[in-house]
Each structure stands twice: as structure tokens, then as C-alpha cells.
Amino acid sequence: MTQTPTEIEKHQYDVVIVGAGGSGLRAAIAAHEAGAKVAVLCKSLLGKAHTVMAEGGAAAALGNLWPEDSWQVHFRDTMRGGKMLNNWRMAQLHAQEAPERVLELEDWGALFDRTKDGLISQRDFGGHRYARLAHVGDRTGLEMIRTLQQRTVQLGIDVFMEFTVTDLMKSGDAISGAFGYWRETGSFVAFEAPAIVLATGGIGKSFKVTSNSWEYTGDGHAMALRAGAKLINMEFVQFHPTGMVWPPSVKGLLVTESVRGDGGILKNSDGKRFMFDYIPEFFKAETADSEEEADGWYDDKKNNRRPPELLPRDEVARAINSEIKAGRGSEHGGVYLDIASRRTPEFIRKRLPSMYHQFKELADVDITVEPMEIGPTCHYVMGGVEVQPDSEMSGVPGLYAIGECSGGMHGSNRLGGNSLSDLLVFGKRAGDAAASYVAGLGGARASLSDADLAAAEELALAPFAGSGAGTENPYTVQHDLQQTMNDLVGIIRIREELERSLAEIEKLKERSKHLVVSGDRQYNPGWHLAIDLRNMLLVSECIAKAALEREESRGGHTREDHPGFDDRWGTLNIALSLNAAGDGVELATQPLPVMPDDLAAFFEEDH
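Now predict its structure.
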């Protein structure tokens, strides 16, 4: 007997963007300007995107402070930061096109900080040879969202706010639309569209301590898997070195890398500046005769002296973790980040206004006179949907992925500042490609199947249907998942703990079949979480399985039982796909794309 859905609100578009962060809005603008009818669906409110948490700046080789900078150097830094596991073509396109995208943002009204000559100012950040982050104080992401949002509204692009997408619809092998619901009323909506661009962000809410906001439940990752796409690099989770550790209500809240870029240093409870003990051989070069001569900075070739606090994030996070484990942590379990002894109060308040107010208001700490207590926090996943570098299309025709829910660009570790320019570069490329794909269909498009819509509706309502037999509270299951990921799949990993995490995830998947929510569909956060858990559990399984498979330490993946690089793994990606039963994931290894000789030549001087 064929199922029929209840009355469902329906819309028809050429391109539907799921997510209204920097990449989603840039894709929407590009698709609209290419002539497509576009809708943007966002889980929260327009302007509230997680992009605003990217405070430091957008990396682009403008050469405003260092004329020696170029896309080639930026490309090389990005590949080195990703420990050569990046998709070389994505890293190349990003480095080449980032300057144009940043200048375009300026043309649209973004108000960047300026040099004394009136050019866009650029600040130093970890892993970048030259200061290349275009910035607006420590509120760069906010300015980016303000600018893109304003342009989106000016162009008249339709935006559906406080709307959750639960499933992607297909006709044959290709995308035909999306299904979801209004969070306010719980009523269902179907979007008929031959092109879907996933811009849903990351997976941080699977971890106990994270800088990510509530929306980051791996929706795009999981929906792409269920639609038939592959995920890559999921073992690589970036723990930002500096999140707040006190008070508990704000634990994990991001402390921008700009603090270190503008001179902040890391100290342990003994008052020692410890990062000099953790500079890897890979990053060492000729040094000054003494730390004092170089003001505590080390030489990164070409006589550009840089503090060890600005090593790539994975290196700094591991160093902080080691100090805390060795008993040299701060009162509340972190370490100290000190800029007060290095810069004047006027400088700090001008360059870091958000950080000044954040600590003053939330922790009663004045960062102009005392150090901050910070510690690593789950911040970013390098892994995501495997896409074609030039178009961002996945292996599913009509399905695109950009931003944090796409994989390949950052390899095993993302450099700070590359996220904002990544959003702009690949957002535009995906929007252009999606509009071109739809135009190429010549008006032919599949309609949505009533049976598929009814099945999606039934799945979304399952937590209500389980009221009689249901025994599990969604909040309890999420808490247990976060604790499992925090304790067993965190910064430092080992086989026994990873195996235990997978066993725990299987138990949680079984418990999730018995979720129960009370009340009705209006304003029901328990129901929203029950739906999110389906995605969080699937993505957590991907992370743990890939982490168990990769028997080496590289970037955002550290195996205590397999320290150091393994050359065998340096040329392989782990690809994950949904298993045949649809209730878990399976993995396979695949070779990295081979870098052309002219680009490979940039790395001949490396150790």
C-alpha cells in the first residue's frame, strides 16, 4: 500500500542552499547572479551563522604588509599545515582566488582595518609564513556575515529562517529536492530543486567541550552520506588551542588566535613560556643566537621571525594538552595566555575589543592586566563530503558541499584564517556550478515522490510515535555521546579507547531507537534534538572508525600508539560511505590525487 504524506507546504527552486553562513550566502549570491532561482534555508536566524566565530581574519596573499607574499607561498603554507594530505587542486584554487574574493567583499561594503597607507591591514596567524589575514579587529567573521547578508537581502534572495532540513530527496541517482520542517510550528515543507548546496558547518556538538554553537550537529555530513555521497578526512578534528576554561558556563568558548597573532604568549603554572619545548623538527630552521635576541621568536626561513605560539593549531593544542597532563596547568585545568605583559591596554582594547569584553563580562577578567585561562576546545572538522575541486559537486549529481561540511581543502589540519577565505572561494564556485548544472538540464526536473515524502515525515515523527514504548531521553543520549567522544576520541587517541568508543556508539544507536519526546510539535527542543541525534551518531561513528583505521599521527589526528608520520598513510585518504543496510558506515582507502611537478617543486626545500 502506497504511503501518502499529510498536507505539506511545497516550494520549487532551481538551487537550494542549506545553511546561511559565509559559504552558503556566497553560493546563494553566485547562483542568483548566474540566473538561478535560489532559496537559502537556515536552522537559526539569518546573521546568526557560526561564521561570526571566525574572529581573526581571512587569509589571502594580498601582499599589503609583505610584498614577497604570493599565492604560491600561501599554497605551500596550506599544504604544509595540512601535512600534505590536502587535495592539491583545492589548495591551489583557494590560494589563487582568495585575494580577489576578499577585495570583492570590500567592494560590497566590508570595512577592513587599514595600514597607514590605506591598504587592507593583514595580521600574523599560525602556520602562515607572512602576515596575510585581512581583518576587522577581532570581529572579521561578523563583518563578513553582515556584508554577505546585506547583499543577499538586496538581491531579493528568498531566505527560510529557523528551518531544519531532515532529508535529501532523490530521483534515480540524482538530487530532486529536500524535506524539512519549520522549527516554530513543526509543520513540514518540501523543496523541489535539482541542485542542493550543503553549507551546514561542522560536528562540534558531538563533543563535550566545543567552541561550536548548537546548530553544529553534522547535518550536512550525515544527509550527504544517506544520499550516497562519500566523506573523507573524518579522523581529522581540530582542537583549537585556546578556548575559555572558566567559568563552566562558557567552557570551550573560542579565544581567537588573534591574541597570539598580536603578541600573546602561553605560560604554564610555573610561569614558564613553554612553547619553545614543543617546536617540531619539521618547523625548525635557523634560529637566533638566543631567545632574548629574537624576543623569543624563531626563524621560519627568509628571516621572518615568528613566535612558537604561532605554530599550526594541532601543534599548539598538543603542547597545551601535554602541559596540563604533566600537572603544570592553571587553577581551572588550562594554561595561561598572557598578552597583558606584552602590549599596552590601549593596544589590546583597540585590536581585540571582542576578547576584552568577552572576558570582562563572562569571567570578570581584565585581559589588559591579567592573563586568561585557556585550554583546547573542539573547533573544526577537516573532514567532510568528497567533492570535485573545481565545482564542489559530490559523487551524487546535483549535490554540492562547501565550507566545513566539505572535505579535502585542509588535509589533516586547517590553518587559522583559511576558513573565511575558503568560504568565499568555494561558495562562489559552488553557486556558479549549481546554476550551470540546472541550466544544463533544460527545464527537465523530477517531481518529489509522495512515498518518499511520507517516509521522511514518518521518520521525523518517530520520537512521538515512540511515546508508548520509548524509554530514552534525547538529552541523556546526547550527554553520553559527548562524554564518549570527549574521553575516547579526543586530542590523544589509542586503539583500545577507539574500539571502546565504537562499542559505545553502537549502544547509543540502539538507545536512540527508543527516544521519546513529550508535548506536541510546536516549540519542542526535545524533538529537535532527537532529530539531530540521528546525524550526530552517524558522524561520530565516521570519526571514530577513521581514527581507528589511520595508524599514524598527522595533523588533527594523534595516535599515542602510533606516534609520528607513516609514509604509507601520507598518500592515502580514508573514504566513508553508508553501508548496504543503511544503519552504519563502511570505509575504504583511496590514493590522494597526484600533484603536478610544477607545484611539487615548491616543496623541494622542505625537510
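The chain has 16 helices and 25 strands.
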